[in-house]
Amino acid sequence: MAVYKIFPEKDATMYSLFPQMNTGLDEIVEISNLNFAVDSNAQVARYLLQFDQTSIDDLIDTKGTGTNWDIDLNCFIATAQGINLDSRLYVYPISGSWGMGTGKYLDQPMVTNGVSWEWQTVQNGKRWPNLTSSLAPYTTASYSGNNRGGGVWYTGSDLPDLDLVGTQTFSYHSDKDLKINVTDIAKAWYSASQDIYTPYTKIENNGFIVKWESSASYEDPTENYFIEFNGNLNVQPVLQYYSMDTHTIYPPCLDFKWDDSSWNTGSSTFPVLETPQAYLSIMNNNGFFYSQSIQQFRIDCRPQFPPIIFQTSSIYTNNYYLPSGSSYWAIKDLDTNEYVINFDSNYTKISADASGSYFTVYMNGLQPERYYTVLIQTAIGGTTQVIDSNYNFKVING
After folding, report:
1. Contact predicate 149/127, CB 8 Å
2. Closest CA to 394 of 255, 298, 293
3. Comparing 264 with 85, which gets the higher pLDDT?
4. Dihedral of CA 221/225/228/233: which sign?
5. In degrees rounded to 5, what are phi and psi of residue 79?
6. How far apart are CA 187 and CA 201, in angstroms?
7. What pLDDT is stored for residue 67 in this prediction?
8. Is residue 215 a contact partner of residue 165, using CB atoms and an 8 Å limit?
9. Using CB atoms within 10 A of its CB, is residue 195 exposed (0-12), middle (13-18) or buried (19+)?
10. CA angle in degrees (0–180, nearest 5) for 143-147-150
11. Rg over CA atoms, the chain
């Protein structure tokens, strides 16, 4: 019943065409495979992003212990082109620390004070390992020909207990937003940070690398997805996503989701709603919430046409519970009408206690100084309905 968002602490794109260039402050991160009239080699872009390990540890320690939890990496599309064939994107945990830098794409003069295709930290600082003899266990890299550099990452091929590879396939008509489950990667990072003895203890959090599929050495050689460094002029996919420095409401994020829903009505005599024709209102909504607050919203509902019975008090003062196991909440951005938190049968279930139905929202995952609206979905008598009655609020800085 909970969704908590974590935003990156650094990100950058690495370009093989400009092996010294840093783009740490660019508003865009990019993966691409392009063929220019420069030489016979395709030019590739990959991007890196990293999230604070202390925040991840805190969430696992205080929210995830003993519960069912998942973490998704989300990036939001800015532009897409060249996806004329099925193209598969890969996410891996990075091996080795890197410096974000302060450059932007094609800055003049070029900024070289952070990560680039050739350099792990700064120009003339530490290079990305680009020989098989210099790679750490369980890792790989681009180490042949003119493609050397561009990061080092764990493949997970020798760690059968973990899935360290996240994938998403894009077709011409598919949604181009990135949403990949990275729960096992986060588990590995947590084990390293807590010094827990496991086979993957040493996989420390240095962030993710996002790249096109590249080599049959660790992909499925029977599938025709090999994109990266493809010299075919008809295979030039480009996906650009908003970075942490975007001036929009679409920075990358980790969605940390867990089920802490509860159905414990105690001695309450409230009935369960049995008709889809009902009135519903959200309580505990003062209209404004600070960005670090946690708000428990209460739901007051009753039938639109209550049964006729004899009683000495108004029937309209009776509260009802929403049905257990089939009632969920979601949040939309009022300006864009997009779901910020969508209905989820595992993680946005509505709870109940002796006072009625309720759910909890962590405001940190919502962009401040924007307006949002709450939606309720419930299934009653074979009818599923979404209730949108302008339950609006604003998140403010503070």
Report:
1. yes
2. 293
3. 264
4. positive
5. -145, 150
6. 10
7. 58
8. no
9. exposed
10. 80
11. 25
Please check the confidence at residue 379 and state whether its pLDDT lies above 50. yes
* Distance, CA of 350 to CA of 327 (rounded, Å): 6
User: 225 near 235, Cβ under 8 Å?
Assistant: no
Rounded to an integer, what distance in angstroms lies between the CA atom of residue 270 and that of residue 5?
A: 34
Instruction: Locate 364 and state its tokens.
Output: 């940190």
- The gap between the terminal CA atoms of the chain, to the nearest Å, is 25
Burial class (CB in 10 A: 0-12, 13-18, 19+), 170: buried
pLDDT in tens, 147-159: 789 999 998 766 6
State the pLDDT confidence band at 276, using cuts at 50, 70 and 90: confident
> Angle 306-311-317 (CA atoms, 0-180°, nearest 5)?
55
Contact 165, 178 (CB under 8 A): no
Q: Do 289 and 395 form a contact (C-beta atoms < 8 A)?
A: yes
Q: Is the dihedral of CA 297, 303, 309, 315 positive or negative?
A: positive
Report yes or no on whether pTM surpasses 0.90: no
**CB-CB contact of 151 with 14 (8 Å):** yes
Instruction: Kindly tell me if the per-residue pLDDT of 22 is higher than 70.
Output: yes
Other CB atoms within a 10 A radius of the CB of residue 284 amount to 10
> Does 182 have pLDDT greater than 60?
yes
- pLDDT score, position 311: 57
pLDDT in tens, 256-273: 998 888 899 888 888 898
Q: How many Å is the maximal CA-CA distance in the chain? A: 88
130 or 326, which is more confident = 326
| Omega before 109 within 30 of 0, i.e. cis | yes
